[in-house]
Amino acid sequence: MAPPLCSACASAPAAALRPATRTPVCRACFIAQFEEEVHATIVSASLFAPGDRVAIGASGGKDSTVLAYVLGELNKRHNYGIELLLLSIDEGIAGYRDDSLMTVVQNETDYNMPLSVVSYKQLYGWSMDEIVKAVGLRNNCTFCGVFRRQALDRGAELLGATKVATGHNADDAAETVLLNVTRGDTARLARCASASTGLSGDRAAGDEGEVSSLPRVKPLMRTYEKDIVLYARFNRLKYFSTECTYAPGAARGHVRDFVKNIERLRGDAVMSVVGSAEDMHVVAPKTTAPKLGKCRVCGYLASRPVCKACDLLRELDRKLPGRRAESASAPLNNSEAAAAFDARKLVVERAGNASTACGGGGVCTNEVCNKA
Ligand SMILES: Nc1ncnc2c1ncn2[C@@H]1O[C@H](COP(=O)(O)OP(=O)(O)OP(=O)(O)O)[C@@H](O)[C@H]1O
To answer: Using a 6 Å CB cutoff, which residues line ligand 1?
Structure first.
């Protein structure tokens, strides 16, 4: 049977169904719709201003890869007048982050955006592999979330960025909303689905940290994950599609399964959860922005006498006391970090032959990827 015609142009055969509405669309119309939807989010939430220097948090995964690509396209088309940079955090997870960073190195060339990499090891003296050895798998995601948030900030500051953009999407937001419900954290409900968060400790989808020194923007916050996968596939974008080695067992994984199951019954479930969180503005308790100062251990921005990252580092020190002598026990200050910031070279050397997770050539066993 011939495929149905595209519901937008009514001339080309449909290449896919829009996941939320099940309307058939051809490749060209899907790409055009997707890009205009992201543009609409950017405009309606005033995410960028001319002259912004935007550090894109680039993990090599599908969301941040699509984010970098689509921002490059929209910046040209709509004259945003912004400068786009790729910033990757190497958490030090062998066989996962080192592989995904190779994809980012490839993106640097493909999208013509300069890449910088900063690692947990440089900033904190610990890689995630070492942290997991010390604390086990139970709450390692807390360490990773707190360190990543601060590392993105510090990396972006060193680059002279005015904003940090991340690839959080609507599915991520729905998961975070539900996670906050399970924690009884009503105060965060209203703002965890927001496309931009300020400096004051707003915790956005996926972030476990406390304060940011730069505004965070999330241009894909109104975009379904399935659309992102489709967009990547139609544009043949290279990305890395393997779950973090240490993610299985994390609470987010259970919530993700729940959201996926509900979505099968109700195509609009994700956006309904996100919309409900936005409506919480009315009932959520009003919180005042925390007073920002300097952490008395590392000197970096903090809303408490000791920042969350240093708190966690102390916990690590307690578990492995002898290690304090061998490694930095507190985050480097920013000038030390700047000196260590040239880690990019290391990654580039490792990336001799950039590849994606599945290697292509067959049927990818991961979620739909560009090599399938
Ligand atoms: N190691 C990292 N370096 C830079 N940015 C990161 C990193 N990990 C996550 N981010 C940013 O945070 C966003 C959400 O994080 P999440 O853990 O969902 O990423 P991911 O699943 O590894 O990859 P992606 O979201 O790009 O598909 C990413 O889209 C990216 O912008």
So the answer is: 57-59, 61-64, 88-89, 91, 148, 166-168, 172, 206
Six-digit token string for 273? 């959860």
Considering the entire predicted model, what is its pTM?
0.86
- Report how far ligand 1's centroid is from the alpha carbon of 154 (Å): 16
Does ipTM surpass 0.95 in this model?
yes
The neighbouring-strand residues paired with 217 are: 165, 196
Distance 160 CA to ligand 1 centre (A): 21
Apex CA 362: angle with CA 367 and CA 355, to 5°? 75
129 domain residue, yes or no: yes
CA-to-CA dists, residue 358 to 87, 243, 361, 365, angstroms? 24, 12, 8, 7
Q: Which atom of ligand 1 is nearest to the CA of 166?
A: 31
In terms of Cβ atoms closer than 10 Å to its own Cβ (0-12, 13-18, 19+), residue 22 is exposed
pLDDT in tens, 314-369: 988 888 766 654 554 455 666 666 665 554 444 444 444 333 333 333 222 333 33
Q: Is residue 362 part of a domain?
A: no
- How many independent structural domains does the chain possess? 1
| CATH (domain of 181) | 3.40.50.620
Substitution site in 63, 152, 220, 369 for ligand 1 pocket (most atoms within 8 Å of beta carbon) = 63
Q: Is 57 annotated as a binding residue?
A: yes
Residue 268 belongs to a domain:
yes
* Cβ contact 308:146 at 8 Å: yes
Distance of alpha carbon 293 from alpha carbon 299, whole angstroms: 9
